[in-house]
Amino acid sequence: MNRKFVCCLALLLSLAASAVSAQAVKFHPGHYLMLNGGNTLEEHLRHIDEIGQVPSIKGVQVRIWWKQLETSKGVYNFSRIDAYLTRLSRYNKRLVVRVMDRKYTPSSPSEILPSYMMTSAYNGGLVRTRYGYAARLWEPVVMDRMIALYRAMGSRYNGHKLFEGITTEEATLALPTPFPAGYSHSALELQYERLMTRSRSAMPNTALFMNANWIGNLPLASKLVQSLVEPYAGVNNSNTVPGSMSHGQLATTGGGSMGADYRGLLAIATSVEHAEMGGSTGDFTPAQIGSFAYNTLRANYMFWVRNTWSGDASQRWETGILPYLRSNPPLRTTCPRAYGVCTMN
User: Fold this and answer.
1) How many domains does the chain have?
2) Are the CB atoms for 66 and 104 separated by under 8 Å?
3) Range of the domain at 152
4) Label partner for 5 (CA 20 to 30 A): which of 66, 105, 195, 221?
């Protein structure tokens, strides 16, 4: 490993440790149910009830549209989050919120952003992607509003013991070429760094994950992962495919351009989507995916899709995923060094 980089990493770790020396970060590693985006709130609450008495499932991850959380500029509606926390409190299970800033279908984008952002002041707020629409997150004026949302959530829920954390959407915006005026992968990466740094002070005790899957190239992904050390943010990924890593996973596990291994240093989360269970990216069983996450990624958190449509019986929720999770498969449970101190009660 490059000696200059080792010194830089040691300095960042020292800064992170001093920043959290008086803090204890919520750290409840384990398996979480990822509630399906197309379901209603009532269906979500029923699915929480279904896993309420399964001790090996620590909680749920829920995807909520930005527009649902910010109804007008600086006016926030957190009633949906409150509803999840109320139901989870029955079982002492925890919540991770994933703010949806994009849509993966080319239908109407009207539900993504607050209407005030879809104006000329924010260049329309959205950009067309290869799959649908996404917020123009590389533009500081748009990222400023996302930072404000994260800080509002952090201020409200940092002290709530069941509010485990917030995770971003994927790092990549999947933009077609030619890119929009002003866009570059580097500009987007810098805005993600701002999001993590500026949000952290409003939620010093709460997990904060950056989904660093793809962002142009491996050196830039490595830079993004390294930038998570000082604000003691965690790293997430949107798919868990045995034998095939994203740039973010490579950068986290020592295969990045800087050669650093962040396992044990940063909190590591990874999501399991239907695509790797008989879908477009693989045909793996839950046990194969879990083994890869434990042995190679050394993950602390896994977010499992409630898959009821892809693959065979061994890959479906009721007949494959849930029985596997009931067996209490292992994940890494040592407090990440960047956190300094963890609270696990």
Assistant:
1) 1
2) no
3) 3-343
4) 195
